[in-house]
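Technical note accompanying the year-one report. For the benefit of new consortium partners, we illustrate the data format agreed upon in the data management plan: each record pairs a sequence with a structure-token string. No post-processing was applied to the example shown here.
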Amino acid sequence: MEMAEEIRINAPREKVFAALNDVEILKQSIPGCESLEALSPTEFTATVVSKVGPLKARFTGGVTLIDVIAPESYTMIGEGKGGPAGFAKMRTKVHLSDDGDATLMSYEVKADIGGKLAQLGGVLITKTSQKLAAVFFKNFEALVSEGAETPSNPA
């Protein structure tokens, strides 16, 4: 699966970059996040519950940040395992640029999935991924923008 998007976030680039590395902000932003822990400034572990079509699974895994150029870009490499539901491996490139008082955040995700998840089909996986990304960015922007709403965190 591949996905790319550009989002405008109503906050300065330095604040957005810091928030993308803040465990508490990320935990509140990630849909279904049960736990998120920083092992180092560039390594994180997480447990996330997610529903994809008829499958609901608890994924545990880790993410490592590489090629970090603060406050402009980095690449995330991660892997999650969901027991019988399967696994996901991903590589995401994130780039931030100034847009007046706001920030343009672009990202490109390449993911490989296996197990029962892979049997669901690419269209369902892509639509679910887009929905989860939309919830993440709504929550994330609410936390980093001035005067925004309180985020929601559905499983």
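Partners are asked to follow this layout when depositing records. DSSP finds four helices and seven strands in the chain.
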